[in-house]
UniProtKB/TrEMBL annotation:
It is found in: Cell membrane. Residues 30-159 form the VTT domain. Keywords: Cell membrane, Membrane, Transmembrane, Transmembrane helix. It comes from Sphingomonas jejuensis. The chain crosses the membrane at residues 12-30, 50-71, 140-161, 173-191. This is Membrane protein DedA with SNARE-associated domain. PANTHER family: ALKALINE PHOSPHATASE LIKE PROTEIN (PTHR42709), UNDECAPRENYL PHOSPHATE TRANSPORTER A (PTHR42709:SF6). It is a multi-pass membrane protein.
Length: 210
């Protein structure tokens, strides 16, 4: 899994790192948990600069974040409901969860964006409610960039650490670790898909009382 990532980064350097992180944010073919440690290994081997890797990874991810923010903002939350009603089962989310998140987001939007940028899977999705609820653009950029930089820096640092300590055996580690990360993410999704249930719909009596 990691071989072609290494090859792309070797050939294109920081642009490759930025492109992979942009792609991961817009349409996640591979997780950042694989991309940035691989780039960190390259930095440890001296082919790239550590801070340059972190900056390019953060920049690429932020381009993807901005894409989803403006896409969601232009669509609006009302037009998103039919999509959730139809495909929510596969996203393991229903409209009740959207409404609950909407209320919380209205009070703690900036904090949610910052924290979510450091959580697997959620970090790529948080741009959508931020756009739907029209979080102030300046707040979105500032808190997204801070959270993304911390997440990207931590993953890059982990790869750099591996590259420094296991320079001659790095291939023995990167491949298995990358495959384990992919397997864990897929297993987590399948687990939620199997056991997820939508919130029970309110009865007509309950709605009348409400």
């Amino acid at each position: 899994m990691s071989d072609w990532i290494v090859d792309l980064i070797n050939r294109t350097g920081y642009l490759g790192v930025a492109f992979l992180m942009f792609l991961e944010t817009v349409f996640p073919p591979i997780p950042s948990e694989v991309i940035m440690p691989v780039a960190g290994v390259q930095a440890a081997q001296g082919t790239l600069n550590l801070w340059g890797v972190i900056a390019s990874g953060t920049g690429g991810a932020m381009l993807g974040n901005m894409f989803w923010y403006f896409a969601a903002r232009s669509v609006g939350i009302a037009r998103f409901k039919p999509f959730i009603d139809r495909w929510g089962r596969w996203l393991t989310i229903d409209w009740h969860e959207i409404e609950r998140a909407q209320k919380l987001f209205g009070h703690y939007g900036s904090a949610f964006v910052f924290i979510a940028r450091m959580l697997p899977t959620v970090r790529s999705l948080i741009s959508i409610p931020a756009g739907f609820l029209k979080l102030r653009l300046s707040s979105f950029i500032i808190w997204s960039t801070l959270g993304t930089a911390i997440w990207t820096g931590a993953l890059t640092g982990a790869g750099w650490w591996l590259g420094q300590r296991f320079e001659n055996r790095i291939d023995d580690f990167v491949g298995p670790i990358s495959n384990a990360v992919i397997a864990l993410i897929l297993a987590s999704y399948l687990w939620r898909l199997i056991f997820w249930r939508p919130a029970p719909k309110e009865s007509a009596t309950d709605q009348a009382r409400g």
